[in-house]
Write a sequence for this structure.
């Protein structure tokens, strides 16, 4: 559509100067185009007019249609394209002739129709409207001609709208064809990618099958190894069970022999059963020690000799508790010293099987604690631990292996006089630290 020539041209097309018949023709053309316009493309100001009945659009909606033709460039351009397509099927590109019809208009077209095209395209239209002689009569033929003219105008508008729809459809078809080509190209690429992925998946499946077969073979080999190991374990367990039964049988036989022999000896000698041990029956502090001839022992510094003495049958170790603890752990409290000594003696008793008694200087209220993990713990009451050690040695029968752990020279002299072995405290500490 050609643009208006200048600002004066707009004044020529002012609503007050447009003849009523030209304005009515423009409104009818706009109403026909509005009826064929897609609702999505309808201007907001004309949506209510579009809902009118086709016969009432040009009359009831005349003012909105005329306003839209003047102010809405898009709607006016659509009406112009429809008019041009209704004339010869394609918009004209030539400039108008000052004396001729507007571009796109047929020279044989009625003057009003040519003026409509000129107004829509912004060309001079005043000279195209020549006053016509009034019709002498309005007979039936004239009315039929006028109706035919209106129908022809309507059909031309419909043709223009149809051609406009065809143009839009062709553009949409071209866009769809471009989109189709793009989608086909994407589909080809997708098929290529799918083939590549399928090949990769097949290769992965092949490797997975090989790995599965290898894992199955390894599992079978492991199951066979497990069965062999289970069988070997069963044989070893049976062999060990048989060996234990044989050893138990031999030990039981020897034990039964010894028990029978001891029972026979007890019956032969008519010995009463032993109820108390000598250390439990030590004489009171004020009782005089019994004088019994003994052999003197000897002092040793070798911890290994202590083990040899304690492994002798029915050996008894008597410990001067604080003398040993202060030799080995002088920087700790008395309670910790007692604990360290008793724990060490318990381990020594477990290793050698000897009877062990620990003597500590006590306060009033201390009592003997019997058999703390195989160790007898005694606290003195009214006497010193040295005196208690002397009474315990004196209470033992002659010939029993007695070992006294102390570094007190007076105690050593006294216990050796009763035939006991005296071991220095440092030797005992070294032995305990070696365990």
């Amino acid at each position: 559509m050609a643009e208006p020539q200048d600002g004066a041209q707009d004044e020529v097309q002012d609503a007050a100067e447009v003849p009523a018949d030209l304005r009515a023709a423009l409104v009818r053309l706009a109403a026909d185009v509005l009826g064929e316009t897609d609702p999505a493309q309808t201007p907001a100001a004309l949506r209510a007019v579009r809902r009118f009945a086709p016969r009432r659009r040009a009359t009831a909606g005349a003012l909105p249609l005329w306003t839209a033709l003047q102010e809405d460039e898009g709607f006016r351009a659509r009406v112009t394209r429809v008019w041009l397509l209704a004339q010869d099927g394609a918009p004209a590109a030539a400039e108008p002739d000052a004396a001729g019809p507007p571009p796109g208009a047929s020279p044989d077209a009625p003057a009003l129709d040519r003026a409509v095209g000129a107004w829509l395209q912004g060309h001079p239209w005043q000279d195209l409207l020549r006053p016509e002689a009034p019709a002498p009569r309005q007979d039936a033929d004239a009315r039929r001609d006028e109706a035919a003219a209106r129908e022809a105008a309507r059909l031309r508008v419909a043709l223009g709208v149809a051609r406009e729809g065809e143009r839009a459809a062709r553009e949409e078809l071209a866009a769809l064809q471009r989109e189709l080509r793009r989608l086909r190209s994407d589909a080809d690429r997708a098929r290529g990618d799918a083939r590549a992925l399928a090949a990769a998946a097949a290769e992965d499946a092949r490797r997975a099958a090989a790995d599965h077969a290898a894992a199955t073979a390894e599992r079978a080999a492991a199951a066979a190894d497990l069965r062999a190991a289970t069988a070997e374990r069963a044989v070893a367990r049976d062999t060990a069970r048989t060996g234990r039964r044989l050893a138990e049988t031999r030990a039981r036989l020897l034990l039964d022999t010894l028990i029978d022999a001891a029972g026979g000896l007890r019956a032969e000698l008519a010995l009463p059963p032993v109820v108390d041990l000598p250390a439990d029956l030590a004489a009171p502090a004020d009782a005089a020690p019994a004088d019994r001839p003994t052999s003197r022992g000897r002092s040793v510094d070798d911890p290994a000799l202590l083990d040899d003495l304690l492994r002798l049958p029915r050996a008894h170790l008597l410990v001067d508790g604080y003398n040993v603890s202060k030799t080995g752990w002088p920087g700790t409290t008395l309670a910790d010293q007692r604990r360290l000594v008793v724990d060490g003696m318990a381990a020594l008793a477990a290793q050698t099987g000897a009877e062990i008694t620990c003597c500590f200087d006590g306060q009033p209220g201390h009592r003997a604690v019997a058999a703390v993990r195989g160790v007898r713990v005694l606290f003195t009451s009214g006497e010193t631990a040295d005196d208690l050690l002397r009474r315990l040695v004196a209470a033992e029968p002659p010939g029993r292996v007695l070992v006294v752990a102390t570094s007190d020279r007076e105690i050593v002299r006294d216990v050796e006089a009763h035939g006991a072995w005296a071991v220095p405290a440092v030797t005992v500490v070294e032995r305990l630290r070696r365990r």
About this structure: The beta strands are 316-320, 355-360, 369-372, 375-379, 402-405, 421-423.
